[in-house]
Write a structure and sequence with these properties.
alpha/beta; Rossmann fold; seven-stranded parallel sheet; five-stranded parallel sheet; globular
């Protein structure tokens, strides 16, 4: 029995949980780099019976699944699987298991806050200048967030945490989503504002929506143009929520600033325009990537695989 542990890009898997239960029962192979193509993934994984994957990293479309003849069990961290065709696996008789969501949103919310502060105060630029021996030369004065307006689009679990951070910083917090009411906004720590008002008044906007056909492109060229000059856009949710071409143009023209953890293509390829965009702080999709979350993900994943090997699979995914 061979088990592939995929997407261990930060070399965190081995030390995040106790693999002793599985080591006597199977050969464990850890993959520390992303696959360059579907062909590369198919060649590397063709001889594995079990695959343990990290959410939102390696895509598994039906075309790749069909090229994995030995695959019997697939484990996914989390429950959302935008990049994975669970129905295609189930139709082939593959047992698909999931884990809980992990960190409860704290890791992602804290990264959103970190990006907001980093953009507002130019922290990466200051760090680079100091290390290059320039001290303050080449840096710019930052802005204070106290007294400014934070707009939150999507006031769910993570959005509510971000709202609390905004209040703690002394910011006025507005919130909007298609189903949000004034009462629910108030309960979540924000004041409700229509979308147009939020865009016009917010000094910083943080996105906290699930990507769906309804939310895709919720910030298009018109919405980005309606933001205040110099406003900060924070996205730790999904790149597809924003028109990427329009966002790049707004950044290149200096109309907005941004702190981004998610991208239309991951890993971000060399030469991507965001890599040279001004007024931008980028992190490599690490919102949920904390030791606490990885520990929970891998502990549950090992339990799922152990249960499967014992003939009593648990936490089965729905193919719908």
């Amino acid at each position: 029995m061979r088990i592939a542990i995929l997407d261990d890009w930060q070399h965190a898997a081995r030390n995040s949980a106790n693999w002793a239960e599985l080591e006597p029962r199977a050969e464990l192979v850890f993959f520390h780099a992303p696959f360059g193509s579907e062909d590369e993934a198919a060649a590397a994984l063709a001889d594995f019976e079990i695959i343990m994957a990290m959410r939102e990293r390696t895509p598994f479309p039906a075309s790749l699944i069909a090229r994995l003849p030995k695959l019997k069990m697939f484990n996914l961290t989390g429950r959302r699987a935008r990049l994975i065709d669970i129905a295609a696996m189930v139709s082939r008789g593959v047992v698909v298991c999931t884990t809980g969501g992990g960190d409860g949103g704290a890791g992602t919310a804290e990264l959103a806050l970190a990006l907001l502060l980093s953009v507002a105060r130019g922290i990466p630029c200051g760090d680079s200048a100091l290390r290059a021996g320039r001290f303050q030369a080449g840096t710019q004065a930052g802005i204070e967030l106290a007294g400014k307006t934070l707009g939150i689009i999507g006031l769910g679990r993570i959005g509510q945490l971000m709202a609390r951070y905004g209040v703690a910083l002394g910011m006025r917090v507005l919130a909007w989503s298609e189903n949000l009411t004034e009462e629910r906004a108030q309960a979540g720590g924000a004041a409700y504002a229509p979308k147009a008002q939020l865009l016009a008044q917010a000094d910083a906007i943080s996105l906290h929506l699930v990507l769906s056909p309804r939310s895709a492109g919720i910030l298009g060229a018109a919405e980005l143009a309606a933001m205040k000059p110099g406003a900060i856009l924070i996205n730790t949710s999904r790149a597809g929520l924003v028109d990427q071409e329009a966002m790049v143009a707004a950044l290149q023209e200096g109309r907005i600033c941004a702190g981004l953890d998610v991208f239309d293509t991951e890993p971000l390829p060399p030469g991507h325009p965001l890599l040279a965009a001004p007024n931008t702080v980028l992190t490599p999709h690490i919102g949920y990537g904390t030791t606490e979350t990885f520990g929970e993900f891998y502990r549950q994943s090992i339990a799922n695989v152990t249960a499967y090997l014992d003939g009593t699979p648990v936490n089965l995914a729905s193919p719908g």
